[in-house]
Structures are given as C-alpha cells and as structure tokens.
Specification:
Blueprint (H helix, E strand, L loop, with lengths): L9 E7 L2 E9 L3 E5 L10 H7 L4 E5 L11 E4 L1 H11 L5 E6 L1 H12 L4 E7 L10 H15 L3 H14 L10 H16 L3 E4 L17 E6 L4 H13 L4 E5 L6 H4 L1 H13 L6
Parallel strand pairs: 3-4, 3-6, 5-8, 6-7, 7-9, 9-10
Antiparallel strand pairs: 1-2, 2-4
Amino acid sequence: MSATTLTPTTTGTLAVSGAHLAYEVAGAGPALVLLHAGVADARMWDAQALAFAERFTVIRYDLRGFGRSGAAIGRFSHRADLLALLDALGVGRASLVGLSMGGSLAVDMALAHPDRVAAVVAAAARPSGQEASPELRGAWAAIDAAVGAGDLDRAVELELRMWVDGPYRSPAAVDPAVREFVGLMDAPLLAAPDEGDPEPLDPPALGRLADIATPTLVIVGDRDQPDTIAGSHLLAAGIPGAARLTIPGVAHLINLERPDAFRRAVLEFLAGIDTGS
C-alpha cells in the first residue's frame, strides 16, 4: 500500500519516563489525536491524516515500543504517555480516534482523564477488562510459538490472517497492498524483544462504561474477530449515548481497507460535537 506522506508542521520526540515518543503534528483547529493498532504504528493513519488536518490539529505518534518511539522496558502507562504528550504540546482537550489497542486506550482515557477528552472514536476496539476467548488466546499462542521458533515470516503471516483477513475471508479476498503494508509495520514489532509491562486501567473499563460522559462513536467491521465484534457491542451498549457503525465486508484494519468510509464517518460524527480545545 503506497502511503500518502503527510508533511507535518511539527515533528519531534518527547522524553517520557524511561523512553521517548516520536510524534507529528499538522493542521489547525481543535486537537485530534490518532492512536494506532497493536500490529501497526502511526503510519497506519497516512490515508486519513491529511484530510483530518484540514479541520483539526492532528497529532499522531508511535506508542511506546512501536515504530520510531523508544523501546518499552519495565512498568509504564500508555495513558500517562499520552497525557505527557498533550501537556508538552499545550493541548487541554483533544478528540481521540483509535483503532484496536488505540481504541481501547481512547476509552480508558475517557475514564481516567475525562476533562482532557472531547470525543472518542473507538474502532475495532474492545473495552479493557473483556476476557479473550479461548480461540483468540490460541491464536496468540501460535504467533508466540512461531516467534519463539525464529520463524518471523510465519508469525507475521499468522498476524495478517488473524487481523487483516479476519476469520471469514481468505488472503486472496483482501487487497494485497494492505496485507503488505501491515506486514511491513508488524514485522519489527514481532522481531523486537517485548520487555514492557503496560499498566492496566484499574478498575478496567468493562465495569465502568456507564461512567463515560464523553461523546463516543464505535466502529466495527463485520468480518472482524468475534471477540472484537462482541467488544463493540459492549462499548456501544455500555457507554451512554454511544453511536455504533458497522462497516460491511471489512475486518480489523477498517481505516486501511475502507479509508474513505472511515474518514467520512469520523468527520460526520465530530461535526456535531463541540471539540474545541
């Protein structure tokens, strides 16, 4: 997938406890933070960032342990990292658009720091505290086994089958450029030693969704993993006033497979919300 490179108005790195975060800022207007998936990095937003920057100050960064950011070693908090980045950039409130791990982080932030979050778009996300199914745990174990055996190519392919293709499609049914792009981002993550211990939200989001007053849009693909689809139902049913959108014919990486539909959904949702910082 050929990435449309966003020419940022600002690039930089922020020192956080024990690491650094690589970030980019572009555009003008209310702040909008893009939070990437666990099989990717900030490049996954290349197809949307430029369009979002026409209306918002778009902030995207590689989470600790991903992309150009420093390795994750020891105990740390993704929430604290994001809060530190907002503080460093002088952002009081921001809308958070996250996919998968990034969507779960956005929901957790709405609980932990509601005064800093203007709106949440949680795509292909599960609430923290939702138990993984035996099938999902088994798939993760197979990936870990491939990594442990030194077969990185197999590990990447298993990740692609799991998240890009999804359980209901063959690889042939998916745009090969999308598979290649995700594999490019994912391979270094699987090859790097995992020494980080991210601090979970305590108590987790699952039992506290009714406490979220932040306007929220939940997006899911109907070809995604059953765990993710179930998680989207939990989020939409549990968060007061949350909207839910199902995009047909797509699995986990919604914004890569349906960039135009994803962009329109986010912009239409945010258009009706006071997202001022």
